[in-house]
Amino acid sequence: MSDRLGTDVIFTALLARAPARTVDALAALNPDDAADLVECRELLVDLALTAPPVAPSSSARSRLLAAHPRPRRPKRPVVIVLDMIQDHLTEGSPAEVPRALGIVPALKARIAVERARQTPIIYVCDTHEADDTTFDDWPVHALAGTPGADVWPDLAPEPDDHIVRKPTYSAFTRSRLGPLLDELGADEIILTGCATELGLSATATDALQRGFVVTIPPDCQAGISPLAEGLTMLTLSTMPPYDPRYLQKAR
Fold it and tell me: What Å distances lie between residue 211 and 47, 62, 69, 124, 139, CA to CA?
């Protein structure tokens, strides 16, 4: 738990029109601040409702609509299932992510829902050659051509799904993920899998910088530790995509 912000700081941030995602993230670090944020927003709404309504002139209405056009939303999501491979989910494996096995039921259900919506499913799998320098720092795992680099059987890909191999944390590095997303016309990534503070964090950051909206369902991700996972999810929640893809064609 962090030190409190207090209502004065919260009100100042709200009145200064600080981004909602930033205020939410800061308040989430302390339960009392989170409760105060809800109350502060309610008080501001009550205050606004006490002012008598004024009908805008036609010119004012046009200026407001021009300044705040109807919001657009991404329309072409894909699901990325990151590193849910046997070497990460097998008990006792040197590269086991112990909390990853617990998300399999929720992730399996989410994949089924998205398949029914005809959302593309992309499995990104950590895969290494025997002489990979990553083994200078990490135990040997996910060797190319071995079952350890394959998707956990209970989440097995179907014929229409995509499989991408990567050699490092981010799914975009030295892989065909970027071209595949371009081919699919994707503008949003539903990012799932493990480990949240490593591969998911690196992949999400790269995706945001490439203009993708990134959504990480809390029940479909697993970190190495609850604390690091929570901090990573909190940090990523404050980061909107740079130059969002779903807005580029509209300009």
Answer: 37, 30, 20, 19, 34
